Amino acid sequence: MQSIHPIIIASFILAFALPVGEANAACVANQQSFADVSSDKRNTVQGPQSVEELEKAFGYSNKEWNELKATILPDDRIYFVTHGNGERFLASYYILVRGGCVISTLLVAIG
């Protein structure tokens, strides 16, 4: 029988055991915590938004949206983030949050 690597097991447990929106150490090196994103004064965060709401915006032909949607689990949350530097808009994107960690982003616009 093939064994599962302990890091994979720990990542799985932490990803689903921690509540959404709570800062935690479960985020891996390439993930940002939702608490960090939402507390950054350069960001405006809206949501969570439902898949149904976003289907209206993206439709069914947007490849990146379909890829993101395929990874969504029942307790995941999707937020819309606008990032600026106080003087001008820099970027807007959707984030997929799982267990308090941003696990994926979908860039919408760059200013």
Topology of helices and strands:
Blueprint lengths: L5 H12 L14 E2 H6 L3 E7 L1 H8 L4 H8 L6 E8 L4 E10 L2 E10 L1
Antiparallel strand pairs: 1-5, 2-3, 3-4, 4-5
Strand order of the largest sheet: 1-5-4-3-2
Number of helical elements? 4
Summed up, the domain count is 1
Give the overall pLDDT as a whole number. Answer: 78
Strand content: 25-35%
**Approximate shape:** globular
- Give Rg in angstroms: 15 Å
Alpha-carbon distance between the two ends:
52 Å
Percentage of residues assigned to helices: 25-40%
Helix/strand structural class = alpha+beta
Structural commentary:
This protein has 111 residues and is an alpha+beta fold. It has one domain. The chain contains 4 helices and 5 strands. It is globular and about 35 Å long. The N terminus is likely disordered.
